[in-house]
Design brief:
Layout (H helix, E strand, L loop, with lengths): L6 H5 L4 H24 L3 H25 L12 H27 L2 H31 L10 H14 L1 H11 L1
The structure holds fe (ii) ion (2 copies).
One fe (ii) ion binds next to helix 3, helix 4 and helix 5.
Length: 176
């Protein structure tokens, strides 16, 4: 039976794989916004952007864990446990990055500049970890997605993104 909630997206031929890959791109853009705010010295915006990034990332990881990683998938090259372990590592590293960013904001002078250099190194390490994980998903896990109505992902995800849209608009206006 047709689920009418799905019609607009399905009519365009968009798949769940497309949407999850789009979400990976959203995450990269939020991380970039956080970094740009840091460089521009909009410190509270930088921290807020990182926290918004974390909310989106946790939503994304939770969907994958509940819908894609709960049961073994014999078709994938890598077992679901590999993906789950990467999720756990990503979450741990991000928690550390947030704590480090918060303490960076309290420093001043040379100490602050040195802390920024160290923070950027940690950001790159985290970013590579995330990118590597996403690449693995896009080349393996997402090729064998179970049948899931698209709106199960798309509707709550859009609500989450919308809740950050005015923050994003304001920050982008300041940065331009
Ligand atoms: Fe994932
Ligand atoms: Fe993912």
């Amino acid at each position: 039976m047709t689920d009418f909630n799905d019609l607009p997206i399905q009519a365009k031929g968009i798949t769940l794989k497309d949407l999850l890959e789009e979400s990976h791109k959203d995450l990269h853009l939020w991380f970039l916004l956080h970094q740009e705010c840091l460089v521009a010295n909009y410190e509270s915006d930088a921290l807020q952007a990182l926290k918004n990034f974390q909310r989106i990332l946790l939503f994304h990881l939770d969907f994958e864990e509940q819908r894609l990683l709960k049961h073994n998938n014999d078709a994938t090259r890598w077992p679901v446990s590999v993906y789950q372990k990467e999720h756990d590592k990503i979450k741990r590293q991000l928690d550390k990055l947030i704590v480090k960013t918060q303490s960076y904001l309290d420093f001043s002078g040379r100490k602050k500049r040195h802390a920024l250099i160290s923070l950027i190194e940690d950001q790159l390490r985290f970013y590579h970890l995330l990118e590597h994980h996403e690449e693995r998903e896009e080349q393996d896990l997402f090729l064998f997605l179970p049948e899931i109505p698209i709106h199960v992902w798309a509707s709550p995800y859009q609500i989450l993104l919308d809740s950050f849209s005015s923050f994003k608009e304001n920050v982008v206006r300041k940065l331009e």
